[in-house]
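Hi F.,

I've been meaning to write this up properly since the lab meeting, where we talked about keeping a consistent format for the predictions we share between groups. The idea is simple: the sequence comes first, exactly as it goes in, then the structure tokens exactly as they come out, then a line or two of notes. No screenshots and no reformatting. I'm using this chain as the first example so we have something concrete to point to.
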Amino acid sequence: MRSGIITTILVFIVGHFQFAQAQCNACERQTNRIVNGDFESGNTGFTSAFNYVTFFPFICTLCPENNYAIGNNATLFHNDFIGNDHTNPPSGDFFIANAPGSPGTNAWCQTLSVAPNTDYTLTFWARDVTDNPNAHPLALLIPTFNNIPAGDTLVAAGGWSSLTTTWNSGQSTTLNVCITDVQSQTGGNDFGLDDISLTACEPIHLSQNAFAGNDATICSNTPLQLGQTALAGYNYQWSSGSGLSAFNISNPTFLLANETDSIITEDFIITRDSANVGCIASDTLSITILPIHDLDLGSDISICPLDSVALSIPNLWEAQTWFDSSHELSIYASAGNAWVSVTEGNCTQTDTVLITAIAIPSTGLPDSIQHCNIDLLLLDAGFDGTWLWNNDSATNPITAIESATYFFHYAANGCEAADTLTVTLYDEYFAQLPADTVLCEGTTVTITSDHPGYWNTGLYASAMTIAIADTFAIAVSNGPCTTHDTIVIAGILQPAVWLGNDSTFCEDYPLILDASAPQNNSYLWSTGDTTSTTITTGSDGYRVEVSNVCGTVSDEIIVTNYPCSWQIFAPSSFTPNDDDFNPGWYVTGYNIRSIDLRIYNRFGDSVFHTTTWEEAWKPSESIGDDIYNYRIDATTFNGEQVIQTGTIYLLR
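Output, unedited:
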């Protein structure tokens, strides 16, 4: 530990300045407790009895007294002020005051925490900001500590000057430090402040003490982590001792075998240089290592497949437990990880040996084969080495000629092995369906296979009755042997014919009778025709028989002829007098089914009406000679509607 040295220098400028310099001890650091002492953060971190104003263009912002501002040029705030920042002109900021001339006014104050019984050094800079070369009152600035003035005063004359003074905190943990103006005159007592600092040598607060770890008792060959996680900038050093993974890290691993019959105890000391400033811390750890005899099952072992190997340990420990939960000194183990755990006092030790089955080639033979006898079955072990089949054949492959179990013995890499294969041979059953056939409408057909099998309908049987036309398939299997066959059943409709209802037709236009249908194959008319159609030759009965493979059906029709032409005869004049010649007017015709006759005079009045051929118009004597009109609405024999009109001359 080095003691600090403090030197005091007194300089008198109207008042006097006290400068104090101190060299901090190795485990201390110089700290500045003032916040925003250079005013670069603006109007923050302090208080003032003056009023704070901000810059506004073309206005004398600081013209009223008892005001202050924070800025980089005093002239901007008052036309009669000058001055810039102390350390970073012209851009830096500083405190600019238009002092009121009230002695004891606190221009600047800040409250902060301090360490007790510590010497603090206050330094600040001040200047006169009045742009007046003539003598004028100057600001008198005195530091105060918790309302107690220091014995030093700074006169703010001309350019920047500083004052440094010391203060001991005693029992205080809080400090209210102020810079107080004691000038009572106005008219030039305006000043600037900058770069205020309060420094002290304070102890370095270590974030980590040296820690070697807790004392421990461990068994031989048991790893133990010492120390703690390292911090950056800290140096670590362990005292010499065996078993450490490293001596210059914070948390080495300790591992030591106690091969004696006695307990071993070792002490380890960690020394830490805190943050490279010479603050040394240390801690001691005591480790007790219990003895236990060394355990070694030996090297890994290779064995033949399905074999086992004897493992044993000497009778040196109080107890032992094998991987199979047995507690004997010797056991047999097959392929895999075999381990044993031994106990001596509070210590346990475990060793493992890997037992590996020697790799021998695989025959590639399956457990069983089902084979269809349509070709030969070759049994191929695909093996390079010494082999022998159960039929004493040393050749490979061999032909399986019967259903049986086949054994294959072989040797490789010093090991012997065997493989077994069961072979089942099957004969092929042929699926055989009838030739393609037809299915008549409304009937069924039964199709039969030589062997039962699965039909494409899902049925398993040897025969199936079909009622619809389709393609049907069967798969017949015997073991792995499967054959298929298919039959196509075409559907055919029953023959069909309909000549229609009995018909009447015009004798000039023969009637064509049609008996055709897609399913019909042959035709025989009563006229002797064998085509699907025939032409009638007159009134008669006509019959036809149609046939296909499903049968024969017939139909007949009676056809009646009638004349095709028609005519209505109407006289153009008549003489209804007493000579019995043309006494009445009437119409005649042929092939007319009905008539409706009306006669009109020249004025459109109806003078006669009849609906029969036989009734004649016999006008009375009161009806004189004249011209009359007639209209006949008639229906011809074939149903045609006709109208006939004309003129009648009545002559007496």
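Notes:
Confidence is low (pLDDT under 50) at residues 1-21.
Residues 367 and 421 are 5 Å apart (CA to CA).

If this format works for you, I'll send the rest the same way.

G.
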